[in-house]
């Protein structure tokens, strides 16, 4: 436990509104109440978490995010949520985070103000954790919103190239077609943004093929790619040859029942085939987890020893989107390896 907490770690797949802890949500509620902003979440915070023991599946997780989004609908509470979440990752031994979030228009702010608020919070140097921002596009968004968010992502990447580092595609995988997002993602990549895609969350070999052929810098989840997990040999070989890193979220997959158990998780197939892996949390609030807990679960259920575990963290340095910060992060992990003779 202590080892996993103290080990310097890298978080590359964390959705802001899914990462809000219960205590952060309570603070935001109080803040909004003091401000006189009506929020409808009072009764619902209890319903925010999703465990493996209940009957909920992946499609049930998407409505839950609205509870957190209600609490981050004014710039001040969005800034608080960002800062408190970064603080929690820092306290858990995370030294670098690429936090992602979907810019939204609310009655209190525009898409641009949403991005600006997160950027300004991340620029505040009271944190020792190094933050970067990945701008999310939701698969359910209409074309004009996708284009607008893409324009903003490119504008902010130009302005803050070391902070706004990437763009990603998420939201309910049963909705929308990947091909609809290709022009926006291509444009983003040409402007220098890195791209990561939620890929293979549900069985859809055709979409997985299209996504891998686009050659994203990373993919999220990659559950239904191996033939044992709803994929097929062709897309599995495509992934193995591509060497595209996979952001693996163990508890998220088990709690949404995308995977039956930790023991049967596709981590093993990825690991054995030498596909690059990064251990991530996805939504630490919804799934009541932490990055150190994900590493601990990996050690215990998959049987990875401490020296291999820390090397997973070290290898994750190769896949971070900020080239600028790679060396700094790598040195922190190498120091830990040397200090503990691992
Ligand atoms: P936000 O972008 O509002 O900060 O974080 C919540 C959003 O992240 C959700 O509305 C959803 O679009 C996306 N998200 C969070 N977790 C998952 C997941 O497990 N799978 C997919 N496809 N999208 C997710």
From TrEMBL:
Reactions catalysed according to its record: N(6)-methyl-AMP + H2O + H(+) = IMP + methylamine
InterPro entries, A to Z: A_deaminase_dom, Ado/ade_deaminase, Metal_Hydrolase
Keyword Oxidoreductase on entry: no
Cofactors that this protein relies on: Zn(2+)
Biological process annotations from GO: adenosine catabolic process; inosine biosynthetic process; nucleotide metabolic process
GO molecular function: adenosine deaminase activity; metal ion binding
Domain Adenosine deaminase: 8-333
Top-level taxon of the source organism: Eukaryota
Pfam entry (one): A_deaminase
Keywords assigned: Hydrolase, Metal-binding, Nucleotide metabolism, Zinc
Family: Belongs to the metallo-dependent hydrolases superfamily. Adenosine and AMP deaminases family.
Name this polypeptide is given: Adenosine deaminase domain-containing protein
């Amino acid at each position: 436990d202590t080892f996993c907490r103290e080990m310097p770690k890298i978080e590359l797949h964390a959705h802001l509104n899914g990462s809000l802890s219960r205590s952060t949500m309570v603070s935001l509620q109080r803040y909004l109440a003091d401000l006189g902003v009506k929020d409808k979440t009072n009764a619902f915070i209890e319903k925010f978490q999703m465990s493996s023991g209940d009957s909920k599946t992946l499609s049930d997780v998407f409505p839950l995010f609205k509870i957190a989004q209600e609490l981050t609908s004014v710039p001040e509470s969005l800034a608080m949520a960002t800062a408190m979440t970064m603080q929690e990752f820092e306290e858990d031994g995370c030294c670098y985070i690429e936090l992602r979030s979907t810019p939204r228009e609310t009655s209190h702010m525009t898409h641009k103000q949403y991005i600006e608020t997160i950027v300004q919070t991340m620029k505040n140097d009271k944190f020792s954790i190094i933050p970067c921002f990945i701008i999310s596009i939701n698969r359910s968004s209409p074309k004009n919103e996708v284009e607008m968010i893409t324009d903003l992502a490119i504008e902010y990447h130009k302005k803050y190239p070391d902070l706004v580092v990437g763009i990603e595609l998420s939201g309910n995988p049963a909705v929308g077609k990947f091909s609809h997002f290709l022009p926006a993602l291509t444009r983003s990549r040409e402007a220098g943004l890195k791209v990561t895609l939620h890929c293979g969350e549900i069985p859809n070999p055709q979409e997985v093929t299209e996504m891998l052929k686009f050659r994203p810098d990373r993919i999220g989840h990659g559950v239904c790619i191996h033939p044992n997990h709803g994929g097929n040999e062709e897309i599995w070989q495509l992934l193995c040859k591509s060497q595209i890193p996979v952001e693996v979220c163990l508890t998220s997959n088990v709690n949404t029942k995308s995977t039956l158990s930790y023991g049967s998780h596709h981590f093993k197939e990825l690991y054995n085939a030498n596909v690059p892996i990064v251990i991530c949390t996805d939504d630490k609030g919804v799934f009541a987890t932490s990055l150190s807990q994900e590493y601990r679960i990996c050690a215990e259920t998959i049987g990875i020893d401490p020296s291999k575990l820390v090397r997973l963290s070290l290898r994750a340095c190769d896949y971070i989107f900020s080239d600028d910060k790679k060396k700094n992060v790598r040195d922190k992990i190498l120091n830990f390896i040397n200090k503990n003779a691992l």
